């Protein structure tokens, strides 16, 4: 009997809180009053052009110019180059412009190069460290080294150079 009255009393109190406009729900995600990390534009993306909201094809998503692709594919100085190893890449966020790779092989943000071992084609890009076992690469960078956008491809990652 006491348990029943206790439960009934709790229900009445909670119902009263609802009538007073108090939200008694348990927080469970964004908007729960806790500070959450907010995404912000990367410094590397500062001058990059974003694809239009209506983009549907690789050409529409890739906002780099022919000159930018040519510069990214230019041979690099081997003096400062250091191989970080091989990784399997997939397409990263196609709406994120520029030449970049998110890879666990990088330990700090910096410049580097990715080489397609099958063809020798390479691209200069930003190295972005991430946790995990696979790497994600920008649409523009994948196109420069001539790998399928929908597959998984093993590439060599080089820092510097």
Descriptive overview:
The protein is of the alpha/beta class and about 160 residues long. The chain has a domain at about 60-160: RlpA-like domain (Barwin-like endoglucanases), CATH 2.40.40.10. Helix content is about 20%, strand content about 25%. The protein contains 4 helices and 6 strands; from the N terminus they run H-H-H-E-E-E-E-E-H-E. Strands 1-5-2-4-3-6 form a 6-stranded mixed β-barrel. The longest helix is centred in the first third of the chain and has 18 residues, at about 1-20.
Q: Indicate the mean pLDDT.
A: 77
How far apart are the first and last residues' alpha carbons, in Å?
A: 79 Å
Give the CATH architecture of the domain at 60-159.
Beta Barrel
Do you know the CATH topology of the domain at 60-159?
A: Barwin-like endoglucanases
Largest sheet report: 6 strands, mixed, barrel
Helix content: 10-25%
Task: Give the count of helical stretches.
Answer: 4
Topology:
Layout: H1 2-19, H2 58-61, H3 66-73, E1 82-91, E2 100-103, E3 110-115, E4 122-129, E5 135-137, H4 139-144, E6 153-159
Parallel strand pairs: 1-5, 2-4
Antiparallel strand pairs: 1-6, 2-5, 3-4, 3-6
Short note summarizing the structure:
Helix content is 22%, strand content 24%.
Features:
alpha/beta, globular, Barwin-like endoglucanases, 161 residues, 4 helices, single chain, six-stranded mixed β-barrel
């Amino acid at each position: 009997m006491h348990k029943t009255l206790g439960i009934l009393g709790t229900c009445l109190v909670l119902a009263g809180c609802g009538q007073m406009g108090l939200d008694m729900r348990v927080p469970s995600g964004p908007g729960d009053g806790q500070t959450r990390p907010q995404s912000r534009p990367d410094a590397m993306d500062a001058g990059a052009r974003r694809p239009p909201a209506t983009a549907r094809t690789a050409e529409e998503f890739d906002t780099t110019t022919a000159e930018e692709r040519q510069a990214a594919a230019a041979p690099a100085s081997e003096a400062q180059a250091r191989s970080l190893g091989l990784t399997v890449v997939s397409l990263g966020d196609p709406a994120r412009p520029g030449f970049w790779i998110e890879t666990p092989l990088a330990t700090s943000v910096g410049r580097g190069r990715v080489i397609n071992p099958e063809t020798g084609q390479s691209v200069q890009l930003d190295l972005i460290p991430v946790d995990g076992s696979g790497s994600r690469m920008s649409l523009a960078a994948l196109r420069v080294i001539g790998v399928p956008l929908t597959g998984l491809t093993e590439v060599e990652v080089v820092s510097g150079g």
